[in-house]
Design a protein that fits this description.
It is a single chain. By secondary structure, the chain is mainly α. The chain has a domain of 87 residues. It has six helices and no strands. The longest helix is centred in the middle third of the chain and has 47 residues. The radius of gyration is 43 Å and the shape is elongated.
């Protein structure tokens, strides 16, 4: 769960100044280079606290050096969580800034491509002085079989008569 600013101040004490810029009104005003530097600083602090927690746990299990056990793990874990939350905010801001930069770069590239396209000469030849005679009809290559209508009537009458003979 996210900690309030007053809770973060209580947990960090004098170190609160390190994450004060990671809260949003101040974070939105920072330039991209400062946001990147803040992310590096927060990541180092979070990793340092994570390493201390890891060392303490190993020492408590008997796997690490016994002199490494120092401090309260709950307090260290809460400090680490505060730095992790601040880093999450800063990383989100970096994603937004990088997205804006990426969109601006792509828009400029598209504008340049469109300008090159408009500046380029047409790649097709001119139509000439006047139009040609146009398209020519191609004769169908299908065979046309014309049946004489009298033949149709003769066959129908023949079938009718044959059926009548069979029916008698």
């Amino acid at each position: 769960m996210a900690e309030s600013i007053s809770t973060e101040r209580k947990i960090l004490g004098d170190d609160y100044a390190a994450i004060a810029q990671s809260h949003y009104p101040a974070l939105a005003d920072l330039p991209a280079e400062d946001v990147l530097a803040l992310a590096r600083q927060l990541r180092e602090q979070r990793d340092r606290l994570r390493g201390m927690l890891h060392t303490n746990r190993r020492a408590r299990r008997g796997k690490g050096e016994p002199r490494a056990v120092s401090g309260n793990d709950v307090a260290l874990a809460r400090r680490k969580q505060v730095y992790a939350a601040a880093l999450k905010r800063v990383n989100h801001r970096l994603d937004i800034l990088q997205g804006e930069a990426r969109r601006a770069w792509h828009a400029a590239a598209l504008r340049d491509a469109l300008a090159r396209k408009h500046a380029a000469r047409a790649h097709h030849p001119a139509a000439g002085d006047s139009a040609d005679v146009g398209m020519h009809a191609k004769p169908s290559r299908k065979r046309t079989v014309r049946t004489d209508p009298r033949e149709i009537g003769r066959v129908s009458a023949f079938v009718k008569a044959a059926q009548a003979r069979r029916d008698r």
